[in-house]
Design goal:
With 173 residues, the chain is mainly alpha-helical. The chain folds into two domains: 30 residues; 125 residues, no CATH class. It has seven helices and four strands. The strands form two sheets. The protein has a two-stranded antiparallel ribbon. The protein has a two-stranded antiparallel sheet with strand order 3-4.
């Protein structure tokens, strides 16, 4: 008859490794579940009206300029004004205010979800913003439009920094 002697240190090490492997497997499955499916709860859901914004309520931005506030429509107006900044001598801050308000507006949709009634699922609000901006008659692609503005010489360096932050917010979704 052979006798096996088990060292207590080796036994504890084997048990510790087994427990750590089990914990890692559980954590990986939790990460996959949380990344794969979005959850729509009342605290993190943005309604469609807030994403689109008002379509007919213009406010006076400068002397001869009207702009819609908020939503996709406001983003289209802001980027259009930034693209044609040299044609608007009434905007004397180099587009800093427009860029800053655009950045803050995009920041509202970070870590928010949107309940899509057509498929009954929950999607990230930033994905919906990108989709609706693309569908807007005056907007092409949100990222491309911001990059076009960044290539212009008219916005100030600070305005360009705000626009770069907008790109980061969009790309991190």
């Amino acid at each position: 008859m052979s006798r096996n002697i088990i060292d207590e240190r080796k036994l504890r090490k084997a048990i510790r490794q087994h427990i750590l492997e089990q914990v890692n497997i559980k954590q990986d499955s939790k990460k996959e579940n949380s990344e794969g499916k979005q959850r729509c709860v009342s605290g993190n859901v943005t309604p469609l009206d807030e994403i689109i914004g008002p379509s007919d309520s213009f406010s006076k931005y400068a002397k001869n300029l009207n702009k819609r506030d908020g939503g996709i429509n406001g983003m289209v107006d802001s980027l259009d004004m930034l693209r044609t900044l040299r044609l608007h001598p009434d905007i004397n801050d180099g587009g800093e205010h427009l860029s800053y308000s655009l950045m803050n507006h995009l920041n509202k949709f970070r870590n928010k979800n949107y309940f899509d009634e057509t498929n009954g699922g929950c999607v990230k609000a930033m994905d919906k913003v990108i989709e609706l901006y693309k569908e807007n008659e005056h907007g092409e692609e949100l990222v491309k439009d911001i990059e076009k503005v960044l290539k212009h010489n008219d916005p100030t360096p600070r305005a360009k920094e705000y626009l770069k932050r907008c790109l980061v917010l969009i790309k991190e979704k």
